[in-house]
Design goal:
The protein contains ten helices and four strands, in the order H-H-H-H-H-H-E-H-H-E-H-H-E-E. The strands form two sheets. The chain has a two-stranded antiparallel sheet. The longest helix has 40 residues. The two termini are 17 Å apart.
Length: 308
């Protein structure tokens, strides 16, 4: 195995990116993104309830819900943020008998893990692995447990992000009293870098935990860093695009739902590109991750990268 450099900016980067685009295009990313977006929309109320309740134990449910609503508002506008708030409210107010509550919680957990379950299937396509037919029941249970673990990770990272943002905001207000204005902007840069770090960590955990292959951390970090940079740029670009064109207006009352699906779909396109980059980066340095004990590899159609 060749030594893997710490940074992705090396002489082979252009070759890796070219190969990444070929693999990404071959794996039908628009179809995979549409599938994940569909299940993500169905899972959204349950997922948000679990995230808000989990992170809310420490920072308060209203603060967490406000943070989520603010993020959605900045990306998709007021209507979509209000629509998500209605989803959360409707899902939270359901009451019934003890048995009905237990069934409701079971469906809540099952529904919340749906998006990550199908995201895992898509990432397995990227890595050319599939389920071992001899481990079907174990595989399903493990997949759902992994997906639920990712939800808890998101809740934790959201909490960390909220705490750090609050700390940086307080420090900014304090220093504004006696520092030149241009130095205060350093805190906005720090806030951006902290957000980038948290997003990178989230993508790294996705690339490491979800696909059924054993990927070295060094490879995972490279793919997560590129994905987070692309995600931040796309978040800014999509905010402008949705704000200027309002593509959901064509669909009337369903416009907010369409915008949410579009945003999830576009985000998945970037995520899959990052996953393909991770795979091609590993291939370039002769790293061949082994499938997990619950999966098997199938034929890789693309030829290995020629480094010459």
């Amino acid at each position: 195995m060749s030594k893997i450099p710490v940074f992705i900016f090396n002489k082979g980067l252009l070759k890796i990116l070219k190969r990444t685009f070929q693999s990404w295009n071959q794996d039908e990313p628009f179809r995979l993104s549409a599938v994940v977006a569909y299940y993500a929309l169905l899972s959204l109320p349950a997922l948000l309830i679990i995230v808000i309740n989990t992170a809310g134990y420490i920072f308060g449910e209203e603060a967490i819900q406000g943070q989520i609503s603010g993020e959605i508002q900045s990306m998709l506008g007021d209507d979509s943020a209000k629509q998500v708030e209605v989803m959360i409210a409707n899902a939270s107010e359901q009451k019934g008998s003890t048995i009905a509550s237990i069934i409701s919680i079971a469906f809540l957990l099952f529904g919340a893990t749906g998006a990550f379950f199908h995201l895992q299937k898509s990432l397995n396509i990227v890595w050319r692995v599939k389920e071992d037919p001899n481990n079907t029941l174990k595989r399903v249970l493990l997949d759902r447990a992994t997906a639920f673990g990712m939800i808890l990770v998101i809740a934790f990272l959201l909490l960390v992000s909220l705490v750090l943002t609050a700390v940086i905001s307080e420090l900014t207000n304090w220093f504004m009293g006696f520092l030149p204005e241009y130095l205060v902007y350093l805190f906005y840069i720090v806030n951006f870098l902290v957000s980038l770090l948290i997003i990178t960590l989230l993508f790294a955990l996705m690339f490491k935990a979800l696909p059924d292959v054993k990927i070295p951390w060094r490879v995972v970090w490279m793919g997560a860093l590129l994905t987070s940079l692309l995600f931040v740029l796309a978040k800014f670009a999509l905010g402008i695009y949705f704000g200027q064109t309002n593509p959901g207006s064509t669909y009337g009352a369903a416009g907010s739902i369409v915008l949410i699906m579009l945003w999830i779909s576009y985000s998945c396109l970037i995520l899959f590109f990052g996953a393909e980059f991770t795979k091609e980066y590993a291939s370039y340095y002769n790293v061949d991750p082994e499938p997990s004990s619950y999966s098997v590899k199938y034929k890789q159609e693309l030829k290995p990268i020629n480094k010459g």
